[in-house]
Design goal:
mainly alpha; flat; 71 residues; 0% strand
Length: 71
């Protein structure tokens, strides 16, 4: 017995092909946007200036002693 096919519905291969093409186009557009992005001067200057680091003092010091016997 032959399974019933809907004439007005696209096949799975057509749907997956369209989805793959759309996702590929999205990645091409996104990579082009990233590569052509002009960084603002404020962001470039902020990246070049060093940041201040806080001196963190640990509250406690722990020692781990491992004892094992070979055998």
């Amino acid at each position: 017995m032959k399974p019933y096919e809907f004439a007005h519905m696209p096949s799975n291969a057509a749907v997956s092909g369209v989805v793959t093409a759309l996702v590929s186009a999205w990645f091409v557009l996104a990579s082009g946007a990233i590569l052509t992005d002009q960084h603002s001067e404020a962001n470039i200057e902020r990246a070049k200036t060093p940041t201040e680091h806080a001196q963190v003092v640990p509250d406690a010091h722990f020692s781990i002693t491992v004892e094992a016997r070979r055998g």
